[in-house]
Write a structure and sequence with these properties.
Number of strands: 9
Order of helices and strands: HHHEHEHEEHEEEHEE
Structural class: alpha/beta
CATH class: Alpha Beta
CATH topology: Rossmann fold
Helix content: 25-40%
Strand order of the largest sheet: 3-2-1-4-5-9-8
Number of domains: 1
Length: 197
């Protein structure tokens, strides 16, 4: 679960976050491979959806998109988008088995406490149907801490992430890396991984 201070920052900064994602989502390099890897017309979950830009792109591609976030203001933004089922929910609310053909956790799980990370990855693996697709994106580095806005982050590198995915029965297939300033305006390295169940 993300801590209260982190969720509060997103609630306060909702409009700025919407503007940032609006600029970045359409030029993102990972969403199209995720959509292409999912079963056509399949059920997908945007876990930590923010304002729902990526869930909307999934729906536009013909996927049955659900969007979850722990910040009411973000859920309201996602719910206003067409053909998206938006819900106020936390990572630990994911308890289904064989429910989704794809799960997208794009810069969301990096807010969970490090000790909870393996549990969340295992829950995602259980919720995926056979040959389901999972995309995870986090900031690169080691340890954890708060940014200048007060959000808590845990930082990871590829070997640790691959080990967590493999331990949960998922197979990492593609990796992307880059640098982006994010909402805080500080350039951070990031990594995204596409894995299969």
């Amino acid at each position: 679960m993300s801590d209260r201070e982190t969720l509060g920052v997103y609630a306060e900064q909702t409009e700025k976050y919407v503007d940032m994602v609006e600029r970045e989502a359409r030029r993102d390099t990972v969403i199209k491979p995720f959509i292409a890897a999912c079963k056509p017309g399949g059920d997908v979950l945007d876990l930590g959806c923010g304002p729902g830009h990526f869930a909307q792109m999934m729906a536009e591609a013909g996927l049955n998109a659900s969007a979850w976030d722990a910040v009411p203001e973000m859920v309201a933004k996602a719910a206003a988008r067409p053909n998206i089922s938006a819900r106020l929910a936390r990572f630990e609310d994911l308890t289904e088995t064989d429910a989704y053909d794809g799960i997208w956790a794009y810069f969301s799980l990096l807010h969970a406490p490090r000790e909870d990370f393996p549990t969340h990855i295992a829950a995602i693996a259980r919720a995926l149907r056979p040959d389901g697709v999972f995309v995870l994106a986090v900031k690169r580095g080691t340890g954890g801490g708060r940014d200048k806005l007060g959000r808590h982050y845990e930082y990871y590198e590829q070997p640790e992430l691959d080990a967590h995915l493999t331990a949960a029965g998922l197979t990492p297939e593609q990796h992307w890396t880059g640098v982006a300033p994010g909402l805080a305006g500080h350039p951070d390295g990031w990594i995204a991984i596409l894995a299969r169940g």
